[in-house]
Amino acid sequence: MKQSIVAGFSDRRKSAAEAKQELLKKFKSAPKADDPEMIAKRQEREAIAAAREERRAERMRIKKEEEDRRKAEAAAVAEAEARAKEEAEAALRAEAEEREAAKKKLIQSVVASEEERKAERDRKDAARKARQKR
């Protein structure tokens, strides 16, 4: 309430008292807590709050399900990686065993051929000595 003229102390006091009376009147005319309109508004606010809480709970449930799904996928991926690693290690072991078997076979064939050569040499030496003795 702005006044265009310069007011004195008594005018300002009167204006303040009127403003207080208007506020008091407005407060007294406000609906009480047990007024049906206020009860309806309060119930509406409670319903909105309950709906908001339900939506929040639904979001949390969806978020938890998504997190559980991600964990399950991560566990499946980790398990698949572990299985693939084990298979790779088994393949490497099998390959190493094959190489070892091939080496052993090569060594055995070399030893066998060496024994055959020695036996042949011994036979020739024995034949030569037998010829010389005659």
Task: Give structural notes.
With 134 residues, the protein is mostly helical. Helices cover 89% and strands 0% of the residues. The protein is rod-shaped. The longest helix is centred in the middle third of the chain and has 98 residues, at 36-133. It starts with 8 loop residues before the first helix and ends with a helix. It has two helices and no strands. The mean pLDDT is 91. The protein has helices at residues 9-29, 36-133.
Give the topology, please:
Elements: H1 9-29, H2 36-133
Structural class: mainly alpha
State the end-to-end CA separation.
155 Å
Mean pLDDT: 91
Shape annotation: rod-shaped
* Number of helices in the DSSP assignment: 2
The main sheet comes to: none
Helix content: over 70%
Count of extended strands: 0
- Compute the gyration radius: what is it? 52 Å
The run of helices and strands is HH
Any low-confidence stretches, pLDDT <50, length ≥5?
Answer: none
* Percent of residues in β-strands: under 5%
Quick synopsis:
The chain is an all-alpha fold.
